[in-house]
Amino acid sequence: MLINCTAYREGHKLANISAEQISDYLKQPDTFVWVALVDPSPEELNQMKLEFGLHELAVEDAQHGHQRPKIEEYGDSIFAVLQTVELEKDEMNLGEVDVFVGPNYVLSVRNRTHQGFTDVRTRCEREPHLLKFGSGFVFYVLMDTVVDRYFPILDELEEALIAIEANMFSRDNPRRNIEALYALKQKLNTLKHAVFPLMEAASKLYGGRVPRVCTNTQEYFRDIYDHLYRINQSIDSIRDMLGTAIQVNLSLIALNESAVTKKLAAWGAIIAVPTMIAGIYGMNFQYMPELAWKWSYPVTLIVMGIFDTYLYWRFKKARWL
Questions:
Q1: Are strands 77-88 and 70-74 parallel, antiparallel or unpaired?
Q2: Mean pLDDT, to the nearest integer, of 148-169?
Q3: Treating both helix axes as pointing N-terminal to C-terminal, what angle do 118-126 and 135-148 enclose, rounded to 10 degrees?
Q4: How far is residue 222's CA from residue 206's CA, in Å, rounded to a whole number?
Q5: Highest-confidence range of 41-45, 168-172, 308-312, by mean pLDDT?
Q6: What is the pLDDT of residues 132-156, one digit of tens each?
Q7: pLDDT of residue 171
């Protein structure tokens, strides 16, 4: 679906145009066209391919979707794949933004994402002194917005880890803690797969041989790389903490199992003494000592009680009970 199609000149908006007018405006000097699509059909992409002269391999990647984050050059144009990460009802939603950037056009294609980029267009139009740099600046703002949306996701995952760590020592269900830790690990891996390849790709946009459309915005892309580097370092740090938390939780499970085993062994010893005495005198041999004695029964019970009381005291002192 076509969301927006606008022509700009010297940092200022000219007009909202139709898809059929794109090629006419591209011929005008100092003018670039910015088009936004959401979940487009193959027919819509093919129309954009004809209007902008897009490379067929880039269009094929945009049609198939589910691409790894990357930035590729096709002559004077750039094709970028950015992954969006959205946390909704404790579920991680992974989307994709494909961006085609040329000397006088920007085409953004959103797939499987709920958050739009209306604020991006507003931000660009609010800064005409930067928008006059053309498609390179728009590409920067799109990329910067995607990266900035990683930060709140990272904060939520870090808070989730802190909450799980607090529950680990409250003797809650350890299985639930393990499941929560591994679910959090999966989310971190999803975010890592979106950030790390993009960090490698962003390093191509500043320093050395820079694509022509990014020539005037190198310092801005360096700022994006710094943000991605910080996010990547934070992810690695949280993953290390997560690994430690998993080990601690497994150790707590082992300790709990050991405590249960000790309790069972202690109660087994306490029960074994009267069972042994009762078993001996239950044999009813004719010449057993004290068998016919008047006080045999109460004395036997007292002896059992004394032994069990002593064993209970010893196990309690040893913290087995």
A1: antiparallel
A2: 88
A3: 130
A4: 6
A5: 41-45
A6: 888 888 999 999 999 999 999 999 9
A7: 63
Calculate the alpha carbon distances from 90 to 98, 180, 183 in Å: 26, 11, 10
DSSP secondary structure string for all residues of 93-153? EEEEEEEEEETTEEEEEEES-----HHHHHHHHH-HHHHTTTHHHHHHHHHHHHHHTHHHH
Domains of the chain, earliest start first: 1-148 (3.30.460.20), 258-317 (1.20.58.340)
Would you say residue 111 has pLDDT above 70? yes
Encoded tokens for 240: 């290390």
CB atoms inside a 10 Å sphere around CB 297 = 11
How does the average pLDDT of the chain come out, rounded? 85
Amino acid in position 82: L
Retrieve residue 286's tokens: 């004719």
How many residues appear in the chain?
Answer: 321
Give 185's contacts (C-beta < 8 A, 6+ positions apart): 239, 242, 246
Q: Are 232 and 195 in contact (CB under 8 A)?
A: yes
Question: Can you tell me the mean pLDDT for 312-316?
Answer: 83
3-state class of 212 per DSSP? Answer: helix
State the pairing for strand pair 12-16/31-38: unpaired
Main-chain phi, psi angles of 42, to 5 degrees? -55, -35
Across the chain, the runs of DSSP E, i.e. the strands, are 2-9, 12-16, 31-38, 70-74, 77-88, 91-102, 105-111
pLDDT at residue 233, rounded to an integer: 94
Q: How far apart are CA 1 and CA 134, in angstroms?
A: 24
pTM of the predicted model over 0.85:
no
**Which residue matches tokens 């690994």?**
243
Say how far apart CA 151 and CA 122 lie, in whole Å.
21
Cβ(237)–Cβ(259) below 8 Å: no
Centre a 10 Å sphere on the Cβ of residue 54 and count the other Cβ atoms it contains. 21
